Amino acid sequence: MSNDKVLRIAIQKSGRLYEDSVQLLKECGIDLRNVKDRLKTVSENFPLEVFFLRDDDIPEYVCDGVADIGIVGQNVLVEKGSAVRTVEELGFGKCRLSIGIPRNMEYNGTASLQGLRIATSYPNLVQQFLDKHSIKASIHEISGSVEIAPGIGLADVIVDLVSSGGTLFMNGLKEAETILDSQAVLIANKSLDKEQLEILDKLVFRMSAVKKAKKNKYILLNAPNDRLNDIIALLPGMRSPSVLPLAESGWSSVHCVLNENEFWERIEQLRAAGAEGILVIPIQKMIL
Ligand code: PRT
Ligand code: ZN
């Protein structure tokens, strides 16, 4: 039976989500030793037990309470339809489930799928999509190498995960439409007890701090005092930028945090406004 002082998390045993999942836990300050070739491990400095599983099994294990929480792609989660709670989007494992069609096929929206044979590993998601658009087509479920199905005459089109698009291209296919945008998410069993929820809250708090930190950079720059107001006006900050006098009179050092989305634009504006010696430093954790 479960020890209710420890939260059990299921993560992928090997594959595309493994490294990022382990890395995220480490960045949350959770020590995991001997993770390779293990089925499970217990952290020595945080009440977390880690189970290493196939990603396809994670939603069901969390739903059934074999694990309390898990990290899995939204694609797998939605396909399985398991009754779990999505706690947090984790920002890695990004991909999309898309319709791939032969490069020479014309595509005029979903109506073009009428009557076709669709190969996929995501039969439920595809069926839901077809129903939503009132399209009748036959779904051929295959578990791997879906992209070769049209080439060997098994199907007319496919629905599969795409990230760079390279696999589709190499198989003479092109992306016609996206069915689902996906990334890794933290999921939780719906009936965790109070103690388990407290541990989950601590974990999510740390995960949010790590995620925010990745999206932001710490900036240090030197500014002539007569340009200081213009430069400060360009800067957002958690409160406001810090301004410290430099040893050289007439100059100040300005410190602030910039979001990655506006990063380059701001840097250009800062230089134009007279900022010099701009240093950009990664942030490890951001606690707001
Ligand atoms: O053994 P296990 O069952 O645990 O692993 P798996 O083989 O089922 O899954 P794995 O490790 O391949 O992927 C795990 C999760 O990573 C997926 O469920 C997605 O949530 C996520 N992910 C992100 C991807 C991709 N990107 C991705 N590109 N999963 C698969 N692909 C494949 C895709 O199927 C296709 O074959 O990569 C190919 C396309 O990539 P591009 O870059 O050529 O477009
Ligand atoms: Zn899998």
Task: Describe the protein's architecture and organization.
This protein is flat. About 25% of the residues lie in helices and about 30% in strands. The chain has about 290 residues and is an alpha/beta fold. It folds into three domains: about 5-95 and about 185-215, D-Maltodextrin-Binding Protein, domain 2 (3-Layer(aba) Sandwich), CATH 3.40.190; about 95-180, D-Maltodextrin-Binding Protein, domain 2; about 215-280, Alpha-Beta Plaits (2-Layer Sandwich). The chain binds phosphoribosyl ATP and zinc ion. Zinc ion binds near residues 54, 55 and 56.
Fill in the keyword field for this structure.
26% helix; 8 helices; 288 residues; Alpha-Beta Plaits; 3 domains; binds zinc ion; alpha/beta; six-stranded mixed β-sheet; D-Maltodextrin-Binding Protein, domain 2; binds phosphoribosyl ATP; flat
